[in-house]
Amino acid sequence: MTDVLDKVAGKSGELVLRRAGDDFEVIANGVFLMDTRNGESERLLVSVAADLVPGKARMLIGGLGVGYSLRAALDHPGVGEVVVVEREPAVIGWNREGPLKDVHDNALSDERVTVVEADLVKWLRRTEERFDALCLDIDNGPEWTVTDGNAKLYSGDGLDMLAARLRPGGVLGVWSAESVPSFAKRLRARFGEVRELKIPVPQGEPDVLWFARV
User: Fold this and answer.
1) What UniProt keywords apply to this chain's record, in alphabetical order (predicted)?
2) Which residues make Cβ contacts (< 8 Å) with residue 63, sequence separation at least 6?
3) Which candidate, 66, 93, 69, 84, places its Cα nearest to that of 6?
4) Residue ranges of the domains in the chain?
5) Pick the CATH number of 38-213 from 1.10.3660.10, 3.90.400.10, 3.30.420.40, 3.40.50.150
6) What is the dihedral sign for C-alpha 213, 110, 122, 140?
7) pLDDT digits over 132-185, tens only?
8) Helix, strand or coil for residue 79?
9) SS3 of 174, please?
């Protein structure tokens, strides 16, 4: 049985938080976006990125989701500070005071975390901040974006913008629900070192993670 816990008009359209048994699901404009059933690949996105940079990394996570990536970052001994950019205030609220709070053990209360309510593309264009690791999990993949504007992040110009926000030796991590050879090709054309991981899931194609170093 599925129960709707909240329904709001978000910045990218209708957002729905619902409970299905012991798990939570987030639906955007009628399309399944994320849930709390597994999260292995979301955790690996940040833990592998942190493994690839020395010292206490300053990490940017694009997209709060259900908080799995943030929790994994805080649990990693190589992460010192985390900035999360999330444009939907409802998602922030569900994670800060709502039912998703217990999913990640109230990660937003950690003093190492800064949450920025903003559209990631617009924020990246105006910020001068730089990071050791930048992890993107705002879409279902480079060709399965929540909104059309996000597609710019995965273009050649978008990759240039992301690279500019990385410190020397920094790592870009990208999550996808499917393999996208054309995006992998653009990554390899822009970055000197690219690694691709495929993470099996219970049903369908494996999730795919890319890690690129400047």
Assistant:
1) Polyamine biosynthesis
2) 69, 84, 85, 86, 120, 136, 137, 138, 139
3) 93
4) 38-213
5) 3.40.50.150
6) positive
7) 999 999 888 898 887 878 889 999 999 999 999 999 999 999 999 899 999 999
8) strand
9) strand
